[in-house]
Amino acid sequence: MAPAQKVVVIVDPYSSGRFLVAELASQHWPMVCIQSSQDLAEFWLTQHQPESFVETIRHEKLDVTLAALAKYDIVSVLPGSEPGVILAEDLQEAFNLPCNGAATTDWRRNKYDMQERLREVGLRAVGQFYSNDIDQALEWQKEWGKWPVIVKPSMSGGTDGVYWCNNEDSMREAFKAECGKLNCNGCVNEKLLVQEYLDGLEYIIDCVSFEGKHVLSGIWVYSKTKDPVTNSIIPEYARLIESTGKVQDTLLKYVFECLDALSFKFGPSHSEVIMCADGPCLVETGARLHGLKGPKMTELATGIGTHELVVDVALNGGRLFNELHAHNYRYVVKKWVFNSHLLNRHKEGILSSSVDIPQLRQLPSTIDVVPCVQPGEDLRITRDLATAAGIVLQAHTSLQQCLDDIKAIRDLEETVLFQVLPARPSLPSIDMSKQEQMSSPMRVASQS
């Protein structure tokens, strides 16, 4: 009898998980795809590339999926995107592979359990209340005594179901819209989180863990403006920053403590942190890669992509990881990289021509333009991440050139970028496929 085929299993290989697929393919590893839920939002499923896999399995029950995988020699199981985290950890444990431990998965996936775990070990955590009862939630807010508050599901992803609430009416609207709803990751929002609003700059810290040790991959910071008229926070851009400095040292110490507390032992982590007046506070962390093209942008900036480190610890014994960890690795910025959002501040209507125009492509730092609205679709005023019209990916050795190009982008937004026909009488609900193209965690607003 021929030996079983050695394969790598990727659960939900969507979003930035496609860089894992590409890296594994470059090393000639056969792969099996698992779709984690029958109820995943369509925007996830349309990213599937079946030709990259020897088989695609639609998960229903763990024993059924294990039986379907029995004919293979499973050498690694990796989550490709947020909805695949829980099943990936279950499979890692079932096959006795390196893992964080399925018993503590909720610490890394459920946003309520995550914060309570941090509080349990004495780390700065978000003030919060978890309920399906709006009256109880409003009573907690009165005791908390501060507006605004953030209302969001504990098990969703991206900007799905997140609200920035400034009064009782807005909280009631959030509960009415989201409680009991099937979210984009195929989970029902049985309860909602009401959380303290964290005021400060928002950072993204990407790391990879191996045998309980952690290595930094990248630190990003968001630039945002607050609109007091619409009570919204408008994302302007996110950029990779230097890995050293007083703020970076503080962030990294805190994030490593959080990773330890949340039992991150193996694989990627993507942590969102607000630097508050009393120090850093975790918004949430995911046991998966930075979304969209984050890993590739990090590779362009530093020479090492997060996806490359993940494959190194999964399949190559952590050779590169161990070398970096031994030298207390801090990356050197070779190129400055930005994810700059296209902001429509004035026009609403039906988009008549693409926002992917030559003037954007010709800017010295532009490497790609990703529209989030296509001709014939409704163009909305940008009030938050979900209503941004697109994203410009930038990379350049000159930081000033990137900043100058952002000014040019803003000029194009005010002049020729947005061409519209008259607006339709009503606008459709937000299409999460567009939100997934943006790599931030909040919908109505981020906590900064």
Descriptive notes:
- It is a single chain.
- By secondary structure, the chain is an alpha+beta fold.
- The protein folds into three domains: 5-97, Rossmann fold (3-Layer(aba) Sandwich), CATH 3.40.50; 127-196, ATP-grasp fold, A domain (Dna Ligase, domain 1); 201-435, ATP-grasp fold, B domain (D-amino Acid Aminotransferase, Chain A, domain 1, 2-Layer Sandwich).
- The protein has helices at 17-26, 42-45, 62-69, 85-94, 105-109, 111-120, 134-144, 168-178, 246-261, 294-302, 306-315, 319-326, 358-361, 399-414, 432-435, and strands at 5-11, 31-35, 55-58, 72-79, 128-131, 149-152, 163-165, 192-196, 201-210, 213-227, 232-240, 267-276, 279-286, 336-342, 349-351, 366-371, 378-379, 390-396, 420-421.
- Strand 12 and strand 13 form a beta hairpin.
- Helix 1 packs across helix 11.
- It is globular.
- The N and C termini lie far apart (60 Å).
- The model is unreliable at 426-448 (pLDDT under 50).
Quick structural gist:
The protein has about 450 residues and is α+β, with helices and mostly antiparallel strands. The protein contains 15 helices and 19 strands.
Chain-wise SSE layout:
Layout: E1 5-11, H1 17-26, E2 31-35, H2 42-45, E3 55-58, H3 62-69, E4 72-79, H4 85-94, H5 105-109, H6 111-120, E5 128-131, H7 134-144, E6 149-152, E7 163-165, H8 168-178, E8 192-196, E9 201-210, E10 213-227, E11 232-240, H9 246-261, E12 267-276, E13 279-286, H10 294-302, H11 306-315, H12 319-326, E14 336-342, E15 349-351, H13 358-361, E16 366-371, E17 378-379, E18 390-396, H14 399-414, E19 420-421, H15 432-435
Parallel strand pairs: 1-2, 1-4, 2-3
Antiparallel strand pairs: 5-8, 6-7, 6-8, 9-10, 9-12, 10-11, 11-14, 12-13, 14-18, 15-17, 15-19, 16-18
Helix pairs in contact: 1-11
